[in-house]
Amino acid sequence: MAQWFARPDEWQRYFEGYRRIVLIANSDAVEIAAAVRRHGRDALYVFFNKVYKVLDAPFAENALLVARSSPVGANIVYRREVADILRFFPPDRFAGVLNLACDDGERFSGAEEFGGRRAGQLQLAAYFDRFYPLSHKPTSGFALAVWLAETTSCEVHLEGFTAKRSLQWKLFADHDWIYEQTCLRLLARSGRLQMAGIEPVNAYAELGRRFPDISGSDIAATGLEVLASRAENTSVAIERLFSLTRLQGRLDRFLRDLKPRTRKEKAIERASKGDRSA
């Protein structure tokens, strides 16, 4: 399969071909049928990586799959999940695969590795330079949402972007969830994108309007005071929990030490050795 788009401006023109773009997060909060009813059949529905978290049947509407890269290539390629994931997208309304990288250390996979579907690349590492906390990496959904909101005139709608852990799916610590939610809510309230489940106004801002004699700095300082108190109470509870589970933690570390290294860990080690010898 030939290479699809590879430059940001090409992707911008492609997305501009749709009036409405709906980004579907891998969240328990997503109801696919309800989302299609809300946004219609003319919208482009964008899914991310492990779509089996939200799809249990083939998706019959306009769809694009975002496959996030890692140091060893696209995650779904490395994990050999391409066929299992692409079976959710019938060819007639499936646009293709957008292989996304948001960090200089993330490597693209070849277009031929995506099961015969057309696949392109979008490199956003430079876009997020100094725009995202350096200790973390942006999630794929956040990265595409912000980039679309700033660089295109499309209606961008977010479904399931709750940043809440569920009983089934965890949140990965290499993303800054607080920063992402702050940014997305600001963009939503400014009208740059639409975010399901978010209140249209900030209650703290309304508090200042209701009581104009109380300054904004006092409201912020008091909010931080309450937040610090709750964080301290949470820290005490977590410390107590660690004390109660110390034995289980030791057993877990022992069992993890016995596990052989994964293919990904071995590949990253080989790549780092190659960089040092270069």
UniProtKB/TrEMBL annotation:
Q: Keyword Nucleotidyltransferase on this protein?
A: yes
Q: Which UniProt keywords apply?
A: Nucleotidyltransferase, Transferase
What species does this protein belong to?
Fulvimarina uroteuthidis
- Under which name does UniProt file this protein? 3-deoxy-manno-octulosonate cytidylyltransferase
Q: Name one GO molecular function term.
A: nucleotidyltransferase activity
Q: Does the keyword Nucleotidyltransferase apply?
A: yes
